[in-house]
Amino acid sequence: MLNITPTALIRWIALAITSAFLLPALAQERIYRCGNEYTNNAVVAKSRGCKVMEGGNITIVQGTVPQAGASPRTGTAPTAPRSTPRNDSAEQRARDSDARLILESELRKAEDRLAQAQKAYANGQPEKEGIESRNHQRYLDRVAELKAAVARAESDVNGLRRELGRMGGVPPAGSGAAASGTPGGPESAAK
After folding, report:
1. pLDDT band at residue 16 under the 50/70/90 scheme
2. Runs of H (alpha helix) within the chain
3. By the 8 A CB rule, do 141 and 74 touch?
4. Is 115 helix (H, G, I), strand (E, B) or coil?
């Protein structure tokens, strides 16, 4: 007969109950990797030639299946936004008119900046200022800055004209340099 004290018996029962709960957690099944898929089914893994994953635990969350007719790029079906109310045509025309007025105003300002930049650039021969008569490199640097300013101003004008053209109608005609899209105007395009 075993001589077990009541304290030892309680410890033994507690150990048995604890081990009953811990053993399944310790005995995790093997996980196999089959390309971008994972499985714990040894038969499937063997038939597909999968490799056993070693190391830590792996958690896999299943993704959602795209709906029929879904876009291949986004994986979602094309739907119209529900939170945006439809604009009535009068309200939309008023917004378009306001946007066009703003763009035309910006175009006039950009054409003025272009005219000033072309005047300062003087077809690549601006007058020398102060120390530039003795320091030719400083003059060349200023000419390069003026040329870049003309190119930026032409780009701004052309971009505003394109945007006005997208809104419908023909954008107002401006200077020849902006229309030609080349620095220095039509004269430099002929060179």
Report:
1. confident
2. 6-26, 42-48, 89-121, 136-166, 176-180, 186-190
3. no
4. helix
